[in-house]
Amino acid sequence: MIEYNVSLLPFNTFQIDVKATGFARFSSVSILSNLLKTCSIRPLLIIGGGSNLLFTKDVDAFVLKNEITGITILKEDEKNVIVEVGGGEVWHEFVCWTIEHGFGGLENLSLIPGSVGASPMQNIGAYGVEIKDVFEHLYAFNLATNEEEKFDASACRFGYRDSVFKQELKNKYVITRVAFRLTKQPIVNTKYGAISDELAKKGITEPTIKDVSEAVIAIRQSKLPDPKVLGNAGSFFKNPVVSVTLAEKVKEEFPSAPIYPVNENEAKIAAGWLIEQTGWKGKKIGFCGVHTLQALVLVNYGGSTGNEVFSMSQSIIDAVKEKFGVELEREVNIW
Ligand code: FAD
Ligand code: NAP
Fold first, then answer.
1. What spacing in Å lies between the alpha carbon of 315 and ligand 2's midpoint?
2. pTM, to two decimals
3. Would you call 41 helix, strand, or coil by DSSP?
4. Residue 192 pLDDT
5. Is the minimum distance from the CB of 270 to ligand 2 under 6 angstroms?
6. I need a labelling partner for 75 at 20 to 30 A (CA). Which of 9, 159, 246, 265 fits?
7. Distance between terminal CA atoms of the chain?
8. 262 C-beta closer than 6 A to ligand 2
9. Which is the catalytic residue, given 235, 304, 308, 313?
10. DSSP letter string over 49-111?
11. What is the pLDDT of residues 188-232, one digit of tens each?
12. Strands 19-26 and 3-7, how do they pair?
């Protein structure tokens, strides 16, 4: 069913109230294909859980919500299992399914909001794991040819919170199914400080994937705002990857700066720390602000417009640039 002039308030976790010219849901590729033939409104905007989007104006587009479900085991042996998942499945529910089945690989990515279909878009990552680490293939519907195509990892060109679908293929494909290679003999990854601290607090010395998932959930609930309560889209900015020269300059002036090596020539600086140093953490402007516990997260206290959030994000980019010479890049998709 195609609806017109639809409020997108229930469909974005920033809780921004804008209208879409056209709106429909699809639960299969054939329904998607029919919708595209029936409705001529263009451009198209594909959405999943709306947890990485900021609407700065009404969406004069045909918004299509992915509701393709299903989890299928394609192949398995004693060690590994390949699982293909419908793009409309809720990410965290799928992660819970993998843990219930004892399949390791996604436990560090527990409680990330959104859909499976959007997960390759920015190669979602947390606590030292990215989906590229367990990615097998995906199917995406080409909006120009109306055909599904298979992409392997190299075709997806995964990068840090990035992929080909966030770059030149943005809005050109609909990711319909994603397959992951998971392990039946999990080796847990607890190298991020916060996870090992949380496990130690519970006295767990030999953690299972369930223990790691529960630790990640506890940490996230303690420091991240629940979008159902306080509108937000997670980290608004990426952690900047800068030249080693610039990172060393920042370290010299600010010895406590959290800087992590990326390769021989580059290092990553925690963007939350950079923002905090400029005094923006906890600031409120009108109905939006910077979260009090995590400066990377911009929040809507209720009634904010997307433009207000966007212009605050520009002030933060300018403040960080002026103090550190580092250019922050927005991670959230802006419409
Ligand atoms: P949407 O917001 O609906 O869409 C995001 C983008 O992908 C849009 O450009 C949209 O057009 C496109 N898109 C969506 N579905 C498809 C599809 N099937 N085919 C083609 N294009 C599509 N991200 C992390 O990486 N790590 C984290 O730890 C993390 N934590 C978060 C915590 C909170 C509290 C919140 C609110 C967000 C967090 N995020 C995190 C960001 C977000 O959850 C992810 O980016 C998630 O993958 C977005 O999924 P979605 O279905 O909500 O995408
Ligand atoms: P944190 O643990 O306070 O750490 C701050 C930043 O430092 C993180 O962003 C992380 O980069 C980096 N970092 C910490 N330990 C590291 C290590 N051992 N090696 C390399 N980099 C390290 O971060 P947080 O805000 O609580 O978030 C925890 C995790 O959840 C992070 O991985 C973060 O990316 C993820 N997260 C993402 C979003 C989002 O919307 N994208 C929202 C909330 C949380 P990385 O971000 O590169 O991991």
1. 23
2. 0.97
3. coil
4. 86
5. yes
6. 159
7. 24
8. no
9. 235
10. S--SEE--S-EEEEEEEE----EEEEEE-SSEEEEEEETTSBHHHHHHHHHHTT-BS-GGGTT
11. 999 887 999 999 999 999 999 999 999 999 999 999 999 999 999
12. antiparallel
